[in-house]
Amino acid sequence: MINIIFGLTALLNQCTVKTPGLNYITHKYLINVIEIYGCEKSKSLKTITIDYETNLGGMANDNNIMINGYLDEIMIEPVLVHEMAHLVNMDLSIDLKKEFRNISWNKFERPQKDFVSGYAMKNAGEDFAETATFFVYHNFDFRVLSLKSEKLKLKYEFMKKLFGKTFKQKVKSYKGLQIFYSTEV
User: Fold this and answer.
1) Exposed, middle or buried: residue 43 (CB in 10 Å: 0-12, 13-18, 19+)?
2) Which of 35, 91, 98, 136 is 20 to 30 Å from 178 by CA-CA measure?
3) Domains, the chain, ranges and CATH?
4) Which helix (H) or strand (E) holds 88?
5) In this structure, are residues 42 and 8 in contact, taking their beta carbons and an 8 Å threshold?
6) Mind listing the pLDDT tens digit for each residue in 96-152?
7) Does residue 31 contact residue 14 with C-beta atoms inside 8 Å?
8) Would the pTM of this model clear 0.70, i.e. be above it?
């Protein structure tokens, strides 16, 4: 297990992150993730742990993110985006947390059509992280889905307000698969 500690000052200093010991690929994707969320929303990140002994893709708690050291390169950025979303969610004001939670989590009935994935149905925290990740990587698809679900439309608008921007969906090929990624619009 490799534990990398980021100083808050380094992150806030024009979002320059010094990552001694962090491999180049993970460092590159971390910088992309900070650009996606912006300096202000990324400031709570203090530690990234690269764990070679976990079965999880990633995990976030407090100010820490753990990612699986065996992740295929193409999965590092989406896992970081998802886990960073957990940290952003933890830092939201009580009012914003309630606003998002009340979209899908104020009733016992939770139809699949109101969530971006099955995993988002697990709990409000995973709903937030999956929704943010979907917003970044599948923005156009999210807009299309939101036409069929009022709750998805509210989630899309929430993420648009939170990020202050939208993303353009792009596709590239990786090991014979079509991989979605995004650029800011």
Assistant:
1) middle
2) 35
3) 1-91 (3.30.2010), 94-185 (no CATH)
4) helix 73-91
5) no
6) 999 999 998 877 778 889 999 999 999 999 999 999 999 988 888 899 999 999 999
7) no
8) yes
